[in-house]
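pasting for ref
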Amino acid sequence: EGNVFEEIEIDEGEEILLGNERTVFEENEVVVLEDSEEENE
């Protein structure tokens, strides 16, 4: 995962890619949070 963030910094000029990758990260984080809450119940 750390390498992915480094690649984003390298592709800084391509805002479209940055936007798409950022959206994917946000969606993945939400899914992880939901999964964790279910396990705690």
